[in-house]
Amino acid sequence: MAKKAATSHMNQTERVAGTIFFIVYLLVLPLLANKLFGIVEVLLDTKISDSLANIYYYVLFAIVLLLFHSFLAHTTSRFLGGVSRAMTTFCMGLLVFYGANELFYRVANVLFNSRTNLNDMTIAASINAAPRLTALIIVFLAPFVEEVLFRGLVFGCLKEKSRVAYVISCVLFAFMHVWTFALSSWDWSYLILMLQYLVPGLVFAWAFDHSGTLWTSILLHATVNTLALWAIVG
Known about the structure:
The model has no long low-confidence stretch (mean pLDDT 87). The protein is globular and about 50 Å long. Helix 6 (118-129) packs across helix 7, helix 8 (164-185) packs antiparallel against helix 9 (198-211) and helix 9 (198-211) packs antiparallel against helix 10. It contains ten helices and no strands. 80% of the residues lie in helices and 0% in strands. The chain is an all-alpha fold.
């Protein structure tokens, strides 16, 4: 079977509106979300619970559905038309992910003194506060939103022009997971933990590229997150 190369297949509206939303998602919302909830708490004279605060992810999910509905319909059609290739790619990606990620993670820990990943600690705290909602976010909402933005939009659009798409989408994906923690602690050496997200970023992009459908990378991302969640809970 011929390879179904990944391209964005996004119309101009999706590209422009999606890019604006992506910038806001990456650089603005992480800083403003907690402040907005704080303002609401003051106005309503109440405490917003952790579970209610996580409605933020439902809103992101809804926005992504609305902005990229045409692209999602197209990539779903490609998935249904090539389920066998998608699942083969998924299995290959899962094997490569755990082999490469384990090796890279061990090397990184030796080189960088096992620096604590605050993102992982935040997830663990969220599980204790709102286990069911956090599980839904980790297993489905976050993989869906991140794959549409980082692989569907960034990687897909750049891939039409250059292989540098792998590098840029991967670096942005890694940056998204650590930059707010580096900023909050004023410790920019914390950005070294971006290295922990390079293997996932590369594997998820490859899964999309190789299968030609974003649902392969969404499924792979969701599975990886599920197994990580299982390890935390267990």
